[in-house]
Amino acid sequence: MTANPALLDLNLRDLGGLPVEGGREVRRGLVFRAGALSKLTPTARAAVDGLGLRTLVDLRTPYERERYGPTYTPAGAQLVLLSIDSGDLTKELASAIRGGRFEDLPLDLLSQINRAFVQSAYPQLGVLMRLVADERRRPLLFHCSAGKDRTGLVAALLLSALGASWPTVLDDYLRSNETPHANNLAYRAQLARAAPWLTRRPWRTPNTEPVLRLLSVDADYLRAAWDEMTRSHASVEGYLAERLGLAEATRLALQEALLTTPCR
Known about the structure:
Blueprint lengths: L4 H4 L4 E2 L4 E2 L3 E2 L5 E4 L7 H8 L5 E4 L3 H7 L9 E4 L6 H12 L9 H12 L1 H12 L6 E4 L6 H13 L3 H9 L10 H10 L14 H6 L4 H15 L2 H8 L4 H11 L6
Helix pairs in contact: 5-11, 7-8, 11-12
């Protein structure tokens, strides 16, 4: 299936088609991930309408929703607000973006933020897993601002719960780099409003590496979250069960609903 350019600009993609253990795949058309869905063009709205969504889950903070606009919600769909942030680390990042002080940020900031998500966002992550497990909620889409950090972690956890291998989980996570955020119109507009200096060339920083790292994803970011789950709960599976409250029955129900029948 050819990807819709309007959806690519939103870093929006179907988790369907990804392989899991036992020769199965994630069913198509049931769970989607995306970046910002605010102030969409008519073409983008039509593309989102075509997904037939029943539920949209907005992972952005109240500040993000107020500043950048509410999530576009198709007729008949329900919007669920599940704010995820990393506290002081998020404030540090926002301050640096506004002031153009990227060179002041540690290069492992997004790894730190992912560890913080694991430590503090487990209530929201648990709720989201149960929403996905509820057939009345599907098709379901979850999104944040860029569709790469919070959204990427949620997708990685869901794929792990479904039985995907680490290489598959990581490959999906890194696919956000294939939709360059320079071409992600919604995200670029959001950055421009937050930090007008970003729209000028050259950037007022002696080193563009911190900027590029913030606009992309890296295996180290996801690995940091995995290491934190393993440190605190021995494994990702332990984190899902003990911290998110994802009971074995719920996990099996997820697999039954979201996975294809294994090939024989």
